[in-house]
Every structure is written in C-alpha cells, then in structure tokens.
Write a structure and sequence with these properties.
There is one protein chain. With about 350 residues, this protein is mainly alpha-helical. Helices cover about 70% and strands about 0% of the residues. Helix 9 packs across helix 10 and helix 14 runs antiparallel to helix 15. The radius of gyration is 21 Å and the shape is globular.
C-alpha cells in the first residue's frame, strides 16, 4: 500500500489528518463543552483550564478516521440518487467525545501520581489547586464520560456494544496504572512486564478508539479487528516515544514536566535496556542515581543513558510497532481515511512532543 513520507511538523500532520473529519471534530468540541458545563462557576473554571490540555485530539481523531476507513465501501449515491452520504454518525461523535473525556481524566490523575507541574506549557491542576481538586476533577470527567456513554445503549444496534467496550477499557487502563505503581523501584523489571504495563495504561485506549469507530461503521469483523490491531500497535509505539522524550526531550518543546519516570523510579524501555546491557559499574551507577534524592539526578541519568544505544533500541522498537500498525491496515479498502491513519502512525515516531 502506498505511504506518504513522515510529516515534518506537528502543525502539518494536524492539518492533514483533520481535513477529512473537520466537521465531526468541531461537533466533538461542542459536545465536550456542553456535556461538562456546570451551574457552578468554580467547576467550570477547572474544566476550562483542563480543556487547554487537549492538544491535537488524537483519540477522537482515531475514532472518526477508523469509522471513516471502515465505512468507505458503503459510501455512494445509493438507489435513490441521493448523492454521496457522510458515513460518520452521531454515534461516532458521541464515542469520540467519550474517549476524549476518559483520556483527559487519566491525564489529570497522572499528573497527581507523577507530581507534574507542567502540561501543554501550562500549570497542571494539581500544581495550581492541589491534589484533592485534581483527583475530584478527574472523577468529574470520568463520571461525565460514563453519563454520555450511556446514551449509546439506546442508539443504533451497531453502537450498542460501545458502552461496554469503553467501560472495560477504562478498567484495563486503571489496572495498568496500578501495575506500574506496584513496580516502582523494581530494578529487575523486564520488557515483557513493561509492555504489559504500557498496553494497559495507554494502548488499550487507542485500540478501543479504533475498534469503536469501526464497529459503529461496519459488521465486517476482519476490518474491525484490523483497526483494533492498528490502534494497539500505535498506542504501544506512542508510549515508548513518550518514555524516550521523558529522558532526552526538551521541556520547552515537549510542553510538560519531564524526568518524572526517573524521579518516581519507573523503569521504561531505554532504562530496562541499559540495565540489561551496560557494564556492571554503569548499571550500579544508574540504580544509585534512581535511588538517590540528589537535585541533579535527572540530568545525570540523561547523561548516562543518552550516549549509548538504549535510546536507539527503544526508537527501533517503536518503529517496528508503527510498521506493524500500518501493515494491519492492508485489509481495508484504499481510501483517504486509510492513508490518514498511515500518516498518523508515521507521525508517532517522528514527533518531538
């Protein structure tokens, strides 16, 4: 299948991916704001602040583009001469809004767990208002996600499994966070457990996004499963790149607090590789730095890991997963939506934020 070259900037990729689904993304924005509006001004103020963290709306885009890609064969004039119809429905928009709410809730709670002070170049809720307000706001977001999700139960037959899938996925995300928290300062963490953690905490949601979009559009199970596989591989690659940026990225470019994995003793793929392949004295040095409270330990860990091949190894794993994600799309009919999903996958390994 034809692929386009990796995008050169985040602005370019956003423009390219959203042009097919601009109207639906606007509808997601409107539904997100409408659903979260409260009659209490202080609640609205918190929601308004966290809405600034939404970025490029990757997860809603995955729902909508997957829905479009899976529906391409059903497009056309039909028997009544009605012209080309838009295959995306209100159920697609609802599901896309729900996953965005779930994602935002996880970000707010993650910032509490990590003690992060910056996200999207702005202060986090926990930094501005304390952990209690951040935890409660995350709960507010997730409860509204379930409230909105319940409307899918009475929607079209194709959408009726969506509510249960979203609830199940949220449970998996929580299990991933619990497993990561359990394994803090486990210097023997292996790659198998690392991949289990990042599948559950990140990739399960991107997998669900793509599966949701597809299952609302089509009953063709090979297409639904192909898009689910694409979403899972994409999510794994996305988290690996996030973990790389946490070590060697620039906070000014990435736009959020970095070094939190180091600070909290959470081993990620570059660190696991380093511990498995470094000379014994370097392995002991890294563990010593991770266990220390020295103010410069984050920078020293970066200086220790970056010159070796552990970052390159992690990037290679991310690229392998991106290639597998793109390969999974081959069962789908050629379309602009499928090519947009290819471009989204390529962006994952090219991004610097």
């Amino acid at each position: 299948m034809a692929t386009s070259p990796p995008p050169t900037s985040s602005a370019a990729v956003t423009s390219s991916l959203t042009q097919l689904i601009a109207a639906e993304l606007k509808a997601v924005d409107e539904l997100f704001a409408r659903e979260l509006t409260s009659d209490l001004p202080h609640v609205n103020a918190l929601v308004s602040h966290v809405a600034k963290f939404r970025g490029k709306m990757l997860r809603p885009m995955l729902v909508l583009l997957s829905g479009l890609a899976a529906a391409e064969m059903t497009r056309g004039g039909g028997g009544g001469g009605g012209g080309v119809r838009n295959p995306l429905t209100v159920e697609h928009v609802t599901a896309a809004t729900v996953v965005e709410m779930v994602h935002m809730a996880t970000l707010v709670h993650d910032d509490v767990l990590d003690g992060a002070e910056v996200r999207r170049r702005g202060a986090t809720i926990n930094h501005l208002h304390g952990n209690e307000a951040a935890v409660l706001l995350g709960d507010f977001l997730i409860s509204h996600a379930y409230h909105l999700c319940s409307s899918l139960d009475s929607a079209s037959p194709a959408a009726q499994g969506a509510s249960r899938l979203i609830a199940h996925t949220t449970n998996i995300v929580c299990e991933g966070e619990l497993t990561q928290n359990f394994n803090r300062q486990n210097w023997s963490l292996d790659e198998k457990t690392y991949f289990l953690i990042i599948y559950r905490k990140t990739a399960a949601l991107t997998e669900a996004c793509c599966k949701l979009g597809a299952m609302i559009s089509t009953e063709r199970q090979p297409w639904v499963e192909a898009l689910a596989t694409y979403g899972a591989k994409l999510g794994l690659a996305f988290q690996i790149v996030d973990d790389i940026l946490d070590i060697c990225g620039s906070q000014k470019t990435v736009g959020k607090s970095l070094g939190t994995d180091i600070e909290k003793g959470k081993l990620t793929l570059p660190m696991i590789h380093f511990l498995n392949h470094a000379a014994p004295q370097h392995r002991e040095l890294l563990i010593g730095l991770l266990e220390s409270q020295d103010h410069d330990r984050i920078e020293r860990v970066r200086q220790l890991i970056s010159p070796g091949d552990s970052i390159a190894y992690a990037r290679g794993e991310a690229q392998r997963l991106v290639d597998e994600a793109i390969s999974a799309l081959r069962v789908l009919p050629a379309s602009e939506a499928r090519e947009a999903l290819v471009e989204a996958a390529q962006y994952v390994t090219a991004r610097d934020r």
